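Run log, item B.
One chain of 330 residues. Sequence copied directly from the ordering sheet:
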Amino acid sequence: MKKILSMSTIILIMVTFFSSCIKEKPVSYSGLYLGQQVSGTEPQLFAPGFISTDLNERDASFTKDGNEFYFSIFAGSFGVILVSKQMNGVWQEPEVASFSGHYSDLEPCVSPDGQRLYFASNRPLEGKGDAKDYDIWFVEKTVSGWGTPQNLGEPVNSEKDEFYPSVTKDGTLYLTAQYENSLGGEDIFWVPQIDGVYQKPENPGEAINSARGEFNACISADESILIFGSFGRGDGQGGGDLYISLKDENGNWTTAQNMGPQINSPALDYCPSISPDGKYLFFTSQRADMPAYSETQRNYKDLLSTFRGPKNGRGDIYWVSTAVLDQFKK
C-alpha cells in the first residue's frame, strides 16, 4: 500500500509540474493534429509548449477519429500515460488517462480499428499489490470510454519484460522482448493472431535483429513497413537511431537501413509511430538541449530523481511527413 501511495504522490507531482510547463495555448490548438502543421520532410517539434514541454515526453498515438492523442511522460523509472481530447473543436489540457496512474504505464498504442489501446505496464496481475515486471496490457473501447485493463497473458507475456506494443489492422502484434530465441539482448518479435488468440512470438531474424539491442518497433497498419530503434551497430548517428525495413514481394523483411541524419541525431531517437491516416511519422528525440530551470523547478526535478531521459537528456515528441519514407521504398 505504501508503494502505491508513493507512486500516486509522484504522479500528482508529475502532472502538476507538466501543467506548469504548458504555455498559454495558442488559438491554433484546434482541429486535426492539434491544428499543427509540418512542412516538407524536416522533423519538427509536435505542439511545443503544450505536448512537448520541459518534461520527458515520449510515445505518440492518435485514435482512429483523430480526436484523442495519447502519450507518456517518464520520470526516472516511472511513467504515466496522458491524453488530450478535442472537445467542441478545442484540444483540452492533457490529463492522466482513465486506465493509468497507479503503477508505471507507458507506450500507448491505439489499434487501427480504434477498438483497443495497448500499453506496457508493471502493474500486478490482480490489480493491487507490489509492482512486477513489465507486461503488455490492453483496454477495450466501451460506450463510456476505455474498459478495465486486461493482461495479454501467455505466450506474449513472460517472467521478463515486454515493451512497446504495435498492432496491424489484422491484429498481428509487434513488441520488444528478450525471449529464449533472442539474437542478443532485447529483440523485436511479431505475434500472429488466429481467431482472436495470440500465438507464440516469432523472431523476424537477422534482417531486423542483431547482437545489439533492438527496441520500440512500429509496424504500419498493412504490415509493409517496420521502423524500430537500435544502437551500437556502427552506422549510427549517436545515442541510438531509428532503422527501417520493408517487406519485399515475397513477404520477407529487407535488411534494415539506418534512417540517416534526416531523421536521426547525435542524441537518442526512439519511439516511432505512424498516424492513423499514414501521413505522418512521430518519434521521440532527446536532441533538444535541456532548458534552464528556475529554483522551484529544480526542486521538483530533484524530488523525482530527474525528468531527464535515460541517456542524453529530456525527450520531446517530433513529427515529419511520411514522404521521408519514399527514398527507402525505392
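Observations after the first pass:
- Residues 2-329 form a domain with the Neuraminidase fold (CATH 2.120.10.30).
- The first strand starts at residue 44 and ends at 45.
Flagged for discussion on Thursday.
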